[in-house]
UniProtKB/TrEMBL annotation:
<dbReference type="InterPro" id="IPR020805">
    <property type="entry name" value="Cell_div_FtsZ_CS"/>
</dbReference>
<feature type="domain" description="Tubulin/FtsZ GTPase">
    <location>
        <begin position="13"/>
        <end position="206"/>
    </location>
</feature>
<keyword id="KW-0963">Cytoplasm</keyword>
<dbReference type="GO" id="GO:0032153">
    <property type="term" value="C:cell division site"/>
</dbReference>
<comment type="function">
    <text>Essential cell division protein that forms a contractile ring structure (Z ring) at the future cell division site. The regulation of the ring assembly controls the timing and the location of cell division. One of the functions of the FtsZ ring is to recruit other cell division proteins to the septum to produce a new cell wall between the dividing cells. Binds GTP and shows GTPase activity.</text>
</comment>
<dbReference type="InterPro" id="IPR036525">
    <property type="entry name" value="Tubulin/FtsZ_GTPase_sf"/>
</dbReference>
<dbReference type="GO" id="GO:0005525">
    <property type="term" value="F:GTP binding"/>
</dbReference>
<dbReference type="InterPro" id="IPR003008">
    <property type="entry name" value="Tubulin_FtsZ_GTPase"/>
</dbReference>
<keyword id="KW-0547">Nucleotide-binding</keyword>
<dbReference type="InterPro" id="IPR037103">
    <property type="entry name" value="Tubulin/FtsZ-like_C"/>
</dbReference>
<feature type="domain" description="Tubulin/FtsZ 2-layer sandwich">
    <location>
        <begin position="208"/>
        <end position="325"/>
    </location>
</feature>
<dbReference type="Pfam" id="PF12327">
    <property type="entry name" value="FtsZ_C"/>
</dbReference>
<feature type="binding site">
    <location>
        <position position="188"/>
    </location>
    <ligand>
        <name>GTP</name>
    </ligand>
</feature>
<keyword id="KW-0131">Cell cycle</keyword>
<protein>
    <recommendedName>
        <fullName>Cell division protein FtsZ</fullName>
    </recommendedName>
</protein>
<keyword id="KW-0342">GTP-binding</keyword>
<dbReference type="GO" id="GO:0051258">
    <property type="term" value="P:protein polymerization"/>
</dbReference>
Amino acid sequence: MGLVKPEVTKFAKIKVLGIGGSGCNAINSMILNQAILGVDFISVNTDAQHLLVSQAPIKLQIGEQLTKGLGVGGDPELGRKAAEESRDKLAEAVSGADMVFITYGAGGGTGTGTAPTLAEIAKKAGVLTVAVVTKPFHFEGTRRMLVAEEAIANLRDKVDTLIVIPNQRLLEVVDKKMTLVEAFRVTDSVLGQGVQGISDLIVMPGLINVDFADIKTIMNDAGSALMGIGTGSGENRAVLAAKTAVSSPLLEVSIDGAKGILFNITGGPDMTMIEVDEAAKIITQAADPDANIIFGATIDDNLVDLIRVTVIATGFDEGVGSNSTTRCFCSRRNCRRSTSFSD
């Protein structure tokens, strides 16, 4: 009997779409940092001139007839009409994807107006659809904040998971001498970390791997989600990173109300299983005892004496099941029943 060659495992196809000025800037940051691997980047904008400076391999101009290559002047209704004009283009952009990230700055015109249409197209195609969206800084004005809040509420039921990053809270953790340009770069960086924390679990080889189906159990029809990011170096770096993540200013409420938690522990080649276990303990102990917890640990050769923990907490909305069980992807000998780890 001849040998049967096993099929090569196919990773889930992930596409990241940045919409409007803020979204396209975030895409540029992700590409230039070279931190997110194994995904397709797509910039979407009504502003043809802004697309010229996009680093994305795929640039999608929408609403060409409506805006004649110009922006929409911060008008979400024009952004919506531009998206409707270019529905076929948007459908082609998400075609073939298993998972789509939609990222933009809420309160603007193109991103705010286009995101709901894009999300509807992706979800109708059966694509796991995750939006990672920023809320404006207070200095951007009351009108922009009101537009952003209305847009976020409108988007919530059109995506599987909606992660909102409140820019104002970033000011709690940055240098007071930071310039305006640097502040917006920080928001771009955080958007990238949110995408990376999830995508790395799927496409990057790791100490503890997570299947795409497991990601879906946490993020499919999950509603609103919160994200926390923490880093640690030196002695007890894993513990520090985990504690920072669960107390992150980006978490507007405690994760103990979440019914689903997805977290990723990333370190260099010197990261140990003990460190992974220590970080995981802190997060599981902070979570609801009945929460469905899925996590992975990935290796990034560029991290020297540094561990990064990204936590995504879901299931705050009504209708999310509460009968889930905790799951872990470590071997039994590394499990501690007191931390809710079980096979």
